[in-house]
């Protein structure tokens, strides 16, 4: 319980009255830009709010009030449209501050982290540096871990590992396949950590790998600040690989990475190591809780579309049942009128939520149903089939809305071509299933190799791995991914020849190289087995690893 929350009740009435006065003055100034006295009155109210919040010890709310005051003072008399963004940010900041204090009064728990997004919005319109997510987080950075080995001088391998990191980073920045990208980034940093040995050169790799592990395990949100954070890590990697001594990772960067580890409460091995060394304790909130609370303060959240999709699915279910009854001749006498009304209502709703093509598909069927009403009888079989195609197409579009993934939404169809679009979507989904099975086969192989190592070379763990990988290879050939299939087949051959049939275990560097190859291939599959123009050649990285195993890869 916050001491500031206890003190809030003492000044609540005056504080909220002052905030209301500031909001009213700001609204009047927006309408009367030449009346500088209105803006000055708002600034005075904001200064009073800041002073009150500072006295009762609410640092997050006080910082927001200070930013609001600074933003208001930066606006000149007679400000034109060029200041609309700044005025909007101030209005939004006042709204969030009021909601934050109301929640604080109700729940008696202070979470200043909730205010960082709106504070940064105000700082951004003023071209000021943004606050890190870890601004209110404290941790000692002088802890060190035990030495884990000597530095291995292998510039070519280190270069390839940094390329692996950059491949994943590019997809994280573009949000193409971000969590798959973070997995390959994690793999690259973990390998670099082992290459460089413990100490200043590798400390950043170790902590950043733990942060990525936590991000993936907890499925944390892909905030712009986090993308910038891991882009900064890449810039530091260049310095690390060029440095021989005297390198120290920037403390703000380490602090931000450690905040992610603590926020996600990671249970992975790397996260546990970092938490132990830096004495990190679990925070009283997590990423999803902060997002939910912020959305409650700022207005409707991302869950709105999911709620809309649930209502749409209920309407679609009624529509499908009615079409089924009509087709079987078991409907009531007014079934055609009901169908016409339901389709019209659903088409309008689909247009409102952005599913225009689905709405158009239903709209195109309304004249057909109207003819059924006038004729008081069902039309031809072709007309009924076309209506069913439109309903199925609409159902697939609504399903994509519920997933909240616009990139995975079926291609929009013109009225009359819904059947082709639906079939293409079904084929795309079948392709996704096949790729998921292939990725699962690779993951199974990696787990089997881990068990093989932990058991000091018990070959029973590898018995099914070559056959499993060859099955993956066949699936990729079916999809036209011959190059990826060939690389997976070579990995299967290496496991069979050098791990199952050979009397001795391969060396640790060779096993790590095999893991690099499988990780790159797994990343390729998780990304849909596609290689976009301008992206790094992931299969090229896998091929380099396979060639390093002594296999003849193209």
TrEMBL record:
InterPro entries: FimL_2nd, HPT_dom_sf. Residues 153-288 form the Scaffold protein FimL second domain. One of its GO terms (biological process) is phosphorelay signal transduction system. It comes from the Bacteria. Pfam families: FimL_2nd. This is Scaffold protein FimL second domain-containing protein. The lineage of its organism: Bacteria, Pseudomonadati, Pseudomonadota, Gammaproteobacteria, Pseudomonadales.
């Amino acid at each position: 319980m916050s001491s500031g929350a206890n003190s809030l009740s003492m000044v609540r009435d005056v504080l909220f009255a002052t905030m209301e006065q500031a909001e009213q003055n700001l609204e009047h100034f927006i309408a009367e830009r030449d009346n500088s006295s209105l803006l000055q009155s708002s600034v005075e109210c904001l200064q009073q709010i800041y002073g009150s919040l500072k006295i009762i010890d609410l640092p997050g709310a006080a910082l927001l009030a200070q930013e609001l005051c600074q933003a208001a003072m930066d606006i000149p008399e007679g400000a034109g449209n060029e200041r609309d963004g700044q005025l909007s940010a101030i209005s939004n900041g006042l709204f969030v501050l009021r909601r934050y204090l109301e929640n604080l009064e109700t729940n008696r728990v202070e979470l200043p982290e909730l205010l960082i997004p709106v504070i940064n919005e105000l700082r951004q319109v003023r071209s000021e540096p943004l606050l890190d997510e870890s601004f209110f987080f404290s941790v000692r950075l002088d802890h060190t871990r035990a030495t884990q080995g000597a530095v291995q001088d292998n510039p070519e391998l280190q270069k390839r590992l940094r390329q692996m990191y950059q491949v994943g980073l590019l997809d994280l920045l573009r949000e193409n396949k971000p969590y798959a990208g973070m997995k390959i980034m994690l793999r690259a940093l973990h390998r670099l950590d082992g290459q460089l040995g413990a100490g200043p050169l590798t400390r950043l790799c170790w902590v950043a790998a733990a942060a990525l592990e936590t991000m993936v395990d907890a499925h944390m949100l892909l905030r712009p600040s986090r993308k910038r954070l891991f882009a900064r890590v890449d810039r530091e990697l260049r310095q690390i690989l060029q440095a021989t001594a005297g390198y120290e990772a920037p403390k703000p960067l380490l602090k931000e990475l450690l905040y992610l580890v603590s926020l996600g409460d990671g249970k992975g091995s790397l996260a546990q190591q970092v938490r132990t060394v830096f004495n990190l304790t679990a925070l009283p909130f997590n990423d999803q809780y902060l997002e939910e609370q912020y959305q409650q303060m700022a207005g409707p959240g991302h869950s709105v579309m999911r709620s809309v999709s649930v209502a749409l699915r209920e309407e679609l279910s009624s529509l499908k049942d009615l079409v089924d009854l009509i087709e079987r001749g078991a409907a009531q006498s007014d079934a055609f009128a009901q169908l016409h009304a339901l389709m019209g209502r659903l088409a309008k709703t689909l247009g409102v939520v952005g599913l225009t093509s689905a709405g158009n598909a239903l709209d195109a069927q309304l004249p057909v149903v109207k003819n059924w009403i006038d004729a008081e009888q069902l039309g031809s079989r072709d007309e009924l089939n076309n209506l069913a195609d439109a309903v199925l197409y609409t159902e697939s579009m609504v399903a994509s809305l519920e997933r909240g993934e616009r990139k995975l939404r079926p291609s929009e169809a013109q009225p009359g071509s819904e059947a082709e679009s639906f079939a293409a979507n079904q084929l795309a989904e079948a392709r996704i299933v096949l790729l998921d099975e292939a990725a699962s086969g690779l993951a199974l192989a990696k787990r089997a190799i881990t068990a093989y190592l932990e058991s000091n070379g018990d070959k029973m763990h590898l018995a099914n791995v070559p056959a499993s990988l060859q099955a993956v290879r066949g699936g990729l050939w079916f999809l036209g991914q011959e190059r990826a299939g060939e690389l997976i087949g070579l990995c299967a051959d290496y496991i069979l020849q050098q791990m199952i049939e050979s009397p001795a275990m391969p060396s640790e560097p060779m096993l790590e190289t095999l893991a690099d190859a499988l990780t790159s291939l797994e990343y390729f599959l998780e990304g849909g087995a596609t290689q976009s123009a301008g992206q790094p050649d992931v299969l090229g990285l896998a091929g380099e690893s396979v060639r390093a195993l002594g296999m003849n890869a193209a």
